[in-house]
Fold:
Amino acid sequence: MPQIRPITDLRNTNEISDLCHAKNEPIFITKNGYGDLVVMSIETFDSILEDRELDAAVAEAEAEYISDSQLADARETLSSLKRKHFG
Structure:
């Protein structure tokens, strides 16, 4: 369940930092009852970026398959790569 905190809670930076690291998820900060900011640990941010990059790679592969409709046999491709790079 996402953490939602008022902007006044940012006065206690240590508590917010501890919460970010303990929950490993973003904390949503509200101002006057409306969403205003998102605060998260660097580890959580890096994880989100990695997920985003993986999703983009999968989407690219799916788009390539749709446009070419060709699949490579995994065993043949791995054997070819092994011969090419490892002799």
Summary: The two ends are 52 Å apart (CA to CA).
